[in-house]
Write a structure and sequence with these properties.
Elements: H1 19-25, E1 46-50, E2 67-71, H2 72-78, H3 85-89, H4 102-105, E3 107-109, E4 115-117, H5 120-129, H6 134-159, H7 164-181
Antiparallel strand pairs: 1-2, 3-4
Helix pairs in contact: 6-7
Length: 188
């Protein structure tokens, strides 16, 4: 998913104070693995990441456009990592979910919850953020299975003759579940 920034926060004196704004801009999801905060226990499991590391570019410490909402695991994995000049020359970089859709342009599902890289930036990001860590693969597998079950329920309901009001109620419930648990812009 590509994230769009809609917030215009006032200048803060600590980067952590941007978290509520980032949380809304990133739709309560990690900028990198895209897991929703509800799946990790809430906003406590998330922090503020400096896309370009603060140790390398101190002047971007409080620049909102350089700050990303990230789960603590992705934030820790990324840490102060940044591609070397040589790596950048070879096309390696971190995917920027505010500029591109990583899961459409650079990463592809392997079917078992794993991700495969399609590009050098995808490979760099996949490796350094460990996007195939067990927890994320398990989460993606569960979502894939839940989507299949939802489609199966829909197909089953289409074959059953129900009173119109009950059919509408069932259809509304399925739509609510889909909206609640599956963002159509997220591949899993």
């Amino acid at each position: 998913m590509r994230f769009f920034r809609n917030e215009t926060p006032p200048q803060q004196t600590k980067y952590q104070d941007y978290k509520p704004f980032l949380r809304r801009d990133f739709l309560h999801r990690c900028a990198y693995c895209e897991i929703h905060e509800d799946h990790l226990g809430g906003h406590w499991a998330f922090g503020v990441d400096h896309f370009r590391p603060k140790s390398k570019l101190r002047k971007l410490l409080l620049v909102y456009r350089n700050l990303y909402y990230a789960c603590n695991l992705c934030n820790t994995m990324k840490g102060e990592t940044w591609p070397s000049r040589s790596e950048q020359k070879d096309g390696y970089r971190f995917l920027d979910p505010c500029q591109e859709d990583p899961y459409v342009d650079h990463l592809a599902p392997a079917g078992d919850g794993m991700l495969e890289s399609r590009t050098e930036p995808g490979e760099f990001t996949l490796k350094h953020l460990r996007l195939n860590r067990r927890q994320l693969c398990r989460h993606r597998r569960r979502l894939i299975e839940a989507k299949k079950n939802l489609e199966s329920l829909r197909a089953g309901l289409a074959r059953v003759v129900l009173p119109p009001e009950l059919a509408l109620e069932m259809s509304d419930h399925l739509a609510m579940v889909e909206k609640e648990y599956f963002n159509p812009d997220v591949p899993y």
